[in-house]
Write a structure and sequence with these properties.
Chain A: Belongs to the ELP6 family. Chain A: Keywords: Cytoplasm, Nucleus, tRNA processing. The complex is a heterodimer of chains A (266) and B (316). Chain A has 266 residues and is an alpha/beta fold. Chain A contains nine helices and nine strands. About 2% of the residues of chain A have low confidence. Chain B has a domain of 219 residues: P-loop containing nucleotide triphosphate hydrolases (Rossmann fold), CATH 3.40.50.300. In chain B, a hairpin with a 2-residue loop joins strand 6 and strand 7. In chain B, helix 2 packs across helix 3 and helix 8 packs parallel to helix 9. The N terminus of chain B is likely disordered. Classes of the chains: A alpha/beta (266), B alpha/beta (316). Chains A and B meet through helix 8 and helix 9 of A and helix 7 of B.
């Protein structure tokens, strides 16, 4: 959890809003630092987190999580974190015939039309347990990332349907939050990815867009972050707000500053 | 005063825009983008129709019913008939709660009504339907719904139908958007600049030229419309009146200015290669004391003095 980013978003783990969809996208740079931020943020907020991790292994997230002050292993053991390790699960699905339907079942089927098994995995992971006392505050779904589902053969509409059902269940029914990462292909004209990105943008409450600098690589400024709030719930007279900051990623934190105000050049 | 008359007796300009959008009937296409969202305008139009006493049906696919109804007071909410396709649009839960036939079935069912009262149908959103249904099927259904009132030879007269469709422009190619645009009687494209929203309204009245106008507006928390003048032309986005203008030549180590005498001397200077009339006269009439020029040539040992002119053989 990056404290400076919390300040920019005007939120803390104790008083985060519920029922929101946050869209992370990156263009010409790596936006995965945002995923690590939200993972540690929601674990510190004592939420039940379902993490659909399709890109990296559990140990990768665990190592970064330790730098940010959360232990994914312990969270998984005490039931706070449900982790779908996409890389391992994909190998199991493809090379071994499983009896029960797997979340990534679409890899095995020639004409998989939808991501219903994956949705059912998420719903099962986050459904409230009737154990009497409420251990966790609210459920959170984290997906890293959705663009890889397009590469694996799902259509953009199928991924949008999956997110729609997740939104209906996690955000509306269970009053939880969702954070998903989509890559922006930018100049490479990927129509399916554009449909996915624009479709999700229309449904999101908060869009965080990490972009590389237009002038190229820089040692002191790693990129710029655009923050766009949409659909403010309190008053519709307030127009959607947008801010831009530049950032530098350090070992255990990320520092943000206004454009052109990097400490290296002042 | 009937409720519809009371609703229209508000400030004339404020109701003009919503009135003109709803007056024609047929399909009203609201084109929005990520930056300039259109759901608030859709809700403002829904509220206006409800206040005018019309029956309002909502096909809700993109947001939950609670979120759509948020901001409406109870008498408007009581007039809205909400068809919820948000919770389980594709029937994944395998219960038969959902309307059989999905959103398309619900839309087609509205074609078969026999009520003479005017009705407004709001599609939230048309983009959701367009991504999941074939374009031709959707257009046929839209045409059938929005043109019910103009069928000749029908025994029961059906009231005016307005279909409000919210379309997210970036999601579709120019083909489907063009087809929907040609089906629409009224097309509203949302945009804006510097925090002010604008609507570009294109009306196609039957047997008349299409009219278009741009209207600046903002939507208040209770979903009524506030028309505005638009941003003034002089306000530039980058000028900041609080930063004083600084003269950059004040602290230089060299002199950039000319004194009056220096300026005069500079202006009276003639340039060496400028061909003025004095120079022309001097060249045409050489002065008598100016001798003709000589060339002094000292040949050295290796020179070949050939008196023959190498150009002799040229036949000029």
């Amino acid at each position: 959890m990056f404290v400076e980013l919390n300040n920019l978003l005007n939120t803390t783990p104790d008083r985060a809003e519920q029922g929101k969809l946050t869209l992370l996208c990156d263009a010409k740079t790596d936006g995965s630092f945002l995923v690590h931020h939200f993972l540690s943020f929601y674990l510190k907020a004592n939420c039940k987190v379902c993490f659909v991790a399709l890109i990296q292994s559990f140990s990768h997230y665990s190592i970064v999580g330790q730098k940010l002050g959360v232990s994914l292993t312990m969270a998984r053991e005490r039931g706070q974190l449900v982790f779908l390790e996409g890389l391992k699960s994909a190998v199991d699905v493809v090379f071994q015939a499983q009896k029960e339907p797997q979340p990534l079942q679409f890899l095995r089927e020639a004409n998989a039309g939808n991501l219903k098994p994956l949705f059912e995995f998420v719903r099962e992971a986050l459904k409230p347990v009737d154990s009497g006392e409420a251990r966790w505050t609210y459920p959170v779904l984290l997906v890293d990332d959705l663009s890889v589902l397009l590469s694996l053969g799902m259509g953009a509409v199928a991924v949008l349907d999956f997110i729609h059902y997740c939104r209906a269940t996690v955000c509306w029914e269970l009053k939880g939050n969702m954070v998903v990462l989509v890559h922006d292909s930018g100049d490479a004209e990927d129509e399916e990815n554009d449909i996915l990105l624009n479709g999700l943008s229309h449904q999101s409450h908060l869009i965080l867009r990490a972009e590389g600098l237009a002038t190229g690589f820089c040692r002191d400024v790693h990129g710029q972050l655009r923050i766009l709030w949409r659909r403010p719930s309190q008053s519709t007279a307030q127009r959607d707000q947008s801010f831009t900051y530049q950032y530098k990623i350090q070992d255990k934190s990320v520092s943000f500053f206004a454009k052109g105000m990097s400490p290296a050049v002042l | 005063m009937t409720p519809s008359e009371g609703a229209r007796a508000g400030t004339g300009r404020e109701l003009e825009m919503l009135d003109s959008l709803l007056a024609l009937g047929g399909l009203v296409l609201l084109r929005d983008s990520v930056e300039w969202e259109g759901r608030s305008l859709l809700k403002a139009l829904v509220k206006k129709s409800a206040l005018c006493g019309e029956q309002v049906h909502i096909l809700g696919c993109e947001v939950s019913e609670e979120e759509f109804r948020e901001g409406f007071d109870s008498d408007i909410n009581n007039r809205l008939v909400y068809h919820d396709f948000f919770r389980d649009p594709l029937n994944w839960s395998k219960t038969e709660e959902a309307f059989p036939g999905g959103p398309l079935g619900a839309l087609r069912a509205m074609c078969k009504r026999t009520d003479p009262a005017p009705v407004t149908i709001a599609l939230d959103s048309l983009s959701w339907l367009l991504l999941r249904l074939p374009c031709t099927t959707l257009c046929q259904a839209l045409h059938a719904v929005s043109h019910q009132d103009s069928c000749p030879g029908d025994s029961s007269p059906v009231g005016k139908v307005s279909v409000l469709g919210l379309l997210h422009e970036e999601l579709h190619g120019p083909g489907p958007v063009g087809v929907l645009s040609s089906l629409a009687q009224t097309e509203v494209t949302l945009g804006g600049t510097m925090g002010h929203a604008s609507a570009h309204i294109l009306c196609r009245r039957p047997r008349q030229r299409p009219t278009d106008q741009t209207q600046w507006f903002s939507i208040l928390p209770d979903f009524s419309l506030d028309l505005q003048q638009g941003p003034s032309v002089e306000s530039q986005p980058y000028s900041d009146p609080h930063i004083p203008l600084v003269d950059p030549t004040t602290h230089l180590t060299f002199n950039l200015h000319l004194s009056k005498k220096e300026r005069e001397a500079r202006d009276s200077l003639t340039l060496p290669f400028q061909f003025s009339s004095e120079k022309q006269q001097a060249l045409l009439r050489p002065r008598p004391d100016q001798a003709t020029s000589h060339i002094f040539y000292e040949p050295d040992a290796y020179d070949d003095l050939d008196q023959e002119d190498p150009d002799d053989d040229l036949d000029i």
